Amino acid sequence: MTGQPRGAAFWILALVFALFVLFLYGPTIAIVLLSFQGPDGGLTFPMNGVSFHWFAKLYEGVGVVDIWAAFRRSIRLGLVVMGLTVVLSVAAGLAFRRRFAGSGPLFFVTVASLIVPSICVSLGIGLEFRLLDDQVNAMGGDFPWLVDGFTTTMGLFTSGLGAHLTWTLPFGLLIMFAVFNRFDRSYEEAARDLGATAWQTFRYVVLPIIGPSLIGVALFGFTLSYDELARSSQAIGDVNTLPLELQGLTTTVTTPEIYALGTVTTAVSFVVIGLALALILWARRRQERRGSDAGQGMV
Amino acid sequence: MSAFGKTSTPYWQALPFALVFLLFFVLPLGLIVMVSFWDYNGYQIIPAFTGQNYLDVFDGCIADLPDLCLTFATYLSTLEFGLMVWAITLVLGFTVAYFLAFHVRTLTMQIVLFLLCTIPFWTSNVIRMISWIPLLGRNGLVNDTLLRLGLVSEPQDWLLYSHFSVVLAFVHLYTLFMIVPIFNSMMRIDRSLLEAARDAGASGWQTVWNVVVPLCKPGIAIGSIFVVTIVMGDFVTIGVMGGQQIASIGKIIQVEMSYLQFPAAAANAVVLLAVVLLIIWGLTRMIDIRKEL
User: Fold this and answer.
1) For residue B45, which phi and psi values (nearest 5 degrees)?
2) Confidence band (pLDDT; 50, 70, 90) for A164?
3) What is the pLDDT of residues A202-240, one digit of tens each?
4) CB neighbours (10 Å) of residue B141?
5) DSSP string, A187-209
6) Does A46 sit behind a cis peptide bond, omega within 30 degrees of 0 on the bond before it?
7) What keywords are annotated for this sequence in UniProt (chain A) (predicted)?
């Protein structure tokens, strides 16, 4: 197709695509603009002056909700989910390169986790931890110290972490499948032939080659956790993450303050995405530069 | 590597991954099924076998026919959303994927435009829903424009917190789930097939309909499964964009949980799972049948 002049079909499709992109980004641009609304401005256009008023109000806190604590919780959880998603996905990706007993069912479960409605997963995890709580409380008869001050086993880094991983890990594994499908195994064989141990082969041959893709896995891990709402909703216990607080605020806050909050969280997402994409680009360049010393003679 | 190392390696490599899904997916779903057969009262769940929860889910569903009971009505309304969102995202997603796969000429440009579609997926869904308020609200941009153009005489209320805004938000949030698998299928199509079609005298439409679409079926199926199951199980989008006024199965489950009626919520979740599985089964079958023809 290359080299030919563009036909009418191209321009029509290009227009559809442009409109689709406008549809994707337009609303977000609208709330970013409106978050700089003047102190007397409302939830809609026109802009009534330009100010940082609503960001200042946001900084002081939104009503009774400690939004910044929720923000910090979401970031912390996001980072932990990101780390675990990368490590577990790579390990599982390596395992899936060979057929092993149970590999079929494990793959099926992983894909099912993407498709099963989040409310069901959330309900299940919520139930699981409630039943666990009952067990702990029942054991309190024999071991009073166990229930001393005990409220629940549910929490950010127990049930919440698990709920998020059921959402991020499938993406991680699917990316690893794509990565290892294109991976040339002769590099590994060469390393082994040269006497490298399994760990050395992984650390010095496999990891540098798949490195840039792992940044992609990390990006999915962090952003999907940072914005996760449906699976956390019933499975996080007493504390709330940022998206949960946000959902509550949609019905109670009627000032541009909520747009300011939207702008801040979207900015965080964009910084993370930008950082990840820049890192991937940098890693790819570095790979091309240093990947091969063929033709450079013996040093 | 020893012979032992070779055979056991995949197991410990996959173990942590498998444990996460065992603890936080398989076991919880099993518990839902179990608890759906348990009894409950105002403040606790009672581990005694009963089928009452399922009877409650379908309470009056047969007796009241032809009037629809709550469960049937809710499923029907959710299915309606699903069908509409599916049709729109399919056409839109296919068009966008087709443009990216066949009309964008360089790989770099393909990656850039593809990322442009993907980036919103990595930002907050709730924020993306809220961001429709300044556009669709009573005093929003759309109403303003319509009024100024004289197309309407008063602000339109059906734009926000309505069925329309729910469908719009679903399309806005989830068209990507159609684009990615269809684009993936399209990139695997051997370009010489398209040339062959052209050489054989096929028009652009004929090529799309008789060559591209059949070869994209796996992608279309995967995208359809994603979109339809997301809509069926949704409670956040319908809640926020419907102004908490439109019923959905997810919402029913959520409300029952907030009243600590876990066995009732579990029974509803099991029924929802069964319906979703049935839809997936239907979608995959549809494709297999076509492959036979």
Assistant:
1) -95, 145
2) very high
3) 999 999 889 889 999 999 999 999 989 889 888 887 788
4) 17
5) HHHHHHHTT--HHHHIIIIIHHH
6) yes
7) Cell membrane, Membrane, Transmembrane, Transmembrane helix, Transport
What's the rounded Cα separation, in Å, for the pair A267 and A261? 10
Average pLDDT over residues B153-180: 91
Question: Per-residue DSSP letters for B77-96?
Answer: HHHHHHHHHHHHHHHHHHHH
Helices (H), A35-117: 53-60, 67-95, 103-115
The conformational region for residue B91 under phi > 0 = left, psi -120 to 50 = alpha, else beta, is alpha
Cα A24–Cα A25–Cα A26 angle in degrees, nearest 5:
105
Per DSSP, what are the bridge partners of residue B103? none
Task: Spell out the domain ranges in chain A.
Answer: 8-51, 66-287
**Least CB-CB distance to B24: which of A16, A165, A219?**
A165
Q: How many beta-carbon contacts under 8 Å exist across A and B? A: 265
CA nearest to B119, candidates A251, A255, A219, A294: A219
Does the pLDDT value for residue A25 go beyond 60? yes
Six token digits for residue A234 = 């019933």
Q: Does domain B65-292 have CATH number 1.10.3720.10?
A: yes
Domain ranges of chain B: 65-292
Prediction ipTM score: 0.88
Residue A88 C-alpha, separation from nearest chain B C-alpha, in angstroms: 5
List all residues 6 or more positions away from B196 whose beta carbon is below 8 Å from its beta carbon: none
Three-state DSSP class for B46? strand
Closest CA to A51 of A65, A64, A40: A40
Dist. CA B27–CA A43, nearest whole Å: 45
- What top-level class would CATH report for the domain A66-287? mainly alpha
Where is B267: in which H helix or E strand? helix B262-292
